[in-house]
Amino acid sequence: MKHVVSVSLGSSRRNHRAEAEFLGEKFLIERIGTDGDFNKVIEIIKELDGKVDAFGMGGIDLYLYAAGKRYEIKDAALIKQAAKKTPIVDGSGLKNTLERKVIRYIDENVFNLKDKKVLMVSATDRFGMAETLDELGAQLIIGDLMFSLDIPIPIKSIRLFHTIAKIILPIATKMPFEKLYPTGKKQEERTPKNEKYFYEADIIAGDFLFIKRFMPDDLTGKIIITNTVTKDDIDELKRLGVRYLITTTPEFNGRSFGTNVMEAVLVSILNKKVDEITFEDYENLLEKLNFKPRIVCLNESDEVKIC
User: Fold this and answer.
1) Cα(101)–Cα(108) distance, rounded to whole angstroms?
2) Cβ contacts of 250 within 8 Å, gap of 6 or more
């Protein structure tokens, strides 16, 4: 049995273990949160290095992307260096492949995305999702400035987002990561912010912890496209009136794992050095695995059901 471990800066309350089978091979998939303890993340990775088949880097991105350029996050580079033998990935390979496929799948098989108003909470984190939504004609409200940097300005075009990102990302990626993204106990807090953009949107898309932290108390009729949700998260979304939840990664024992975990699974199957894995490698393997988004009806209406 292969063993894949996501070591996360996130809350230990979201820890999970599950067994699954891919292409006839059994996997133990595990998520270990460290409650924002950067040193503990490195300690666990060093302890398990060479003993597991692949690591996912959870609660932090190794890279942020915009306009085809990649920017390395300084703090994440230190985590990557702790793994000397076992491959380690941050999920960006799937954000550039699987999440693009999921958005196209939704548009072709679930509902048309053209002219839908979509609040994209962070396009630097979900660049493939944001770019594909734009290609399909969705009306984007990009929240990177509002939610990551506390600058209350929505970005309403991919072109403008790329221009701003080229200026900001070289600086932002050198900042302490907790200034950009909720880690540890902050992942359990909810402090609604910029509510009007949630209310105006038909769809709220992107990283769930961003969505959870800033979402208002009323999400009646909204569609959420995200991943990494627990049963408690689903119960809360139902209580707030969310109509449909769509997760980009599969469900295992009532939980969808993050893209970093699923990319680690793919890396262990491909059995290649991470730097040698190509976009086509991921695409071909995803075709074989035939992943489909999970669509959960949380609050039904009189309209035609989509799941």
Assistant:
1) 10
2) 20, 256, 262, 291, 292, 294
Report the candidate in 171, 166, 174, 120 with the shortest Cα–Cα distance to residue 147: 120
Which residues are paired to 120 by β-bridges? Answer: 142, 205
Report phi then psi at 227, rounded to 5: -160, -170
CATH 3.40.50 location in the chain: 98-249+293-297
Cβ atoms of residues 14 and 208 within 8 Å: no
**How many angstroms separate the CA atoms of 201 and 20, rounded?**
35
Whole-Å CA distances, 34 to 62, 111, 174: 17, 38, 22
Region class of 120: left (phi > 0), else alpha (psi between -120 and 50), else beta: beta
Distances (CA, A) of 150 to 93, 179, 297: 28, 10, 32
Q: What is the pLDDT of residues 78-128, one digit of tens each?
A: 999 999 999 999 998 898 899 999 999 999 999 999 999 999 999 988 999
Q: How far apart are CA 161 and CA 144, in angstroms?
A: 9
Report residues of the chain scoring pLDDT below 50.
Answer: 302, 304
Quote the CA–CA distance of 90 and 57 in Å, as a whole number: 5
Q: Which tokens sit at 175? A: 């900042």
The whole-angstrom distance between residue 9's C-alpha and the CA centroid of its chain comes to 14
Q: Output the CA torsion 59→62→64→70 (10° steps).
A: -170
CA 170 to CA 165: how far, in whole Å? 8
Q: Are 4 and 261 in contact (CB under 8 A)?
A: yes
User: Would you call 176 helix, strand, or coil by DSSP?
Assistant: coil
Q: Enter the CATH code of domain 98-249+293-297.
A: 3.40.50
Under 8 Å CB-to-CB from 287, ≥6 apart: which residues?
A: none
Q: Is 60 helix (H, G, I), strand (E, B) or coil?
A: coil
